[in-house]
Amino acid sequence: MATITIRETLFQAAISLAANKLRSALTTLGVAVGVFSIIAVMTALDAVERSVATGLSSLGANTFQIQKYPATVFGSRHQQDLYANRKDINWQQALLFRKFMGAKASGIGFVITKQASQARFANRSTNPDVIMTGGDENFAKANGFDLSDGRNMNANDIQYASNIAVLGSEVAVSLFGLGENPLNRQIKVDGKVYTVIGIFSKKGAAFGQSQDNFVLIPITRYLDQVNEKSSLSITVEARSQKEYPATIDQAIGAMRLARGLTVRQTNDFEIRTNESLIESFREIQNTISVGAFIISFMALLTAGVGIMNIMLVSVTERTREIGIRMSIGAPRQTILRQFLLEALLLSIGGGLVGIAAGAGAGNLVALNFNLPMMFPWGWMFAAIIVCSAIGISFGIFPAWKAANLDPVVALRSSK
Questions:
Q1: pTM recorded for the entire structure
Q2: Closest C-alpha to 136, from 233, 220, 48, 45
Q3: 181 inside domain
Q4: Which strand (E) or helix (H) includes residue 45?
Q5: What is the maximum span of the chain, computed from C-alpha positions, in angstroms?
Q6: 284 and 218 fall within a common domain
Q7: Can you give the residue range of the structural domain that contains 294?
Q8: Strand (E) or helix (H) holding 205
Q9: Structural domain tally of the chain?
Q10: 172 inside domain
Q11: Of 12, 247, 310, 344, which has fewest CB within 10 angstroms of its CB?
């Protein structure tokens, strides 16, 4: 019997809300905006977090990089200019670094890149978004690349600046399709001709960017033909996780010597480790999350006040209806339950709309940056709980007011 009563009460609450569609929709929209802001942000951040984890695994647990710039550049214009005014890490410094490190690392690779290049073969061409990369014979090992066909660059290729290239899988498919053999074919990149000697296995995306859309040539030829003024990045692989901290310390010392820094001068280069990337990401994530929480809190608070106002208006408009129901035996508990359910339906309805829109918007952002789709189920359930709490908190007073109307006075009302 209790189940039937609750079902009937819920049905009556839905009918009452449907009778005022525009008012109900506007009230629901207020809740939806608040939920949308937090769900959209957290969906996008969860997708970025998964991409960061994938990117870190691709770098390797024992790997770190030495660069001119930090992983992320924030702060004042002055701070950004300090990084920009640093000397580039050049080829001579990279060679000195390798010499000073000796056998203290398992592998040391050099790399330098140029964005927005275009590769051509016969009448086929890639989009102008290929990353032109100069590397040494240790590039593949230091960056976790395997060959699917052909050979890797060797020390002679680097020494003599050979006119060769190893293609990322995405570039190989764009130029040669799936059936044609690219080996020993000549391609053009930005007008320069290179002979293909190998193809890297597909590696996928990391940090929202494809790791397969690049052309690798000997770094010596890159510096001679492409851009000799760019700053190199040095990838260092420690021999083991146990030796990882000591290898970083040794690398800092070796780089300071290679850069000619005195004891009093601070480092003019950055060490990018897995931990530093995670820390940088979390700083960004926390800042964005705080902003989203503030916006969401204000929107939900406003929506809650709106629900209370709408329900108070509804009580006033339906005073005579309440009096009639009480006069024919409806208990106060039923009246209170109906108005409370109406507030709850408005709040949860808005929450569901906000969740759907937020998850959709967050995943659209993720897809736009080649990030994996995510559905933050924990945040979705939390949003439903919060919306339920708002509906009950802001609906309890109007419901109590309706349940405590004097039936005689209510029947005299013209409304």
A1: 0.63
A2: 220
A3: yes
A4: helix 21-59
A5: 103
A6: no
A7: 2-55+279-412
A8: strand 205-206
A9: 2
A10: yes
A11: 12
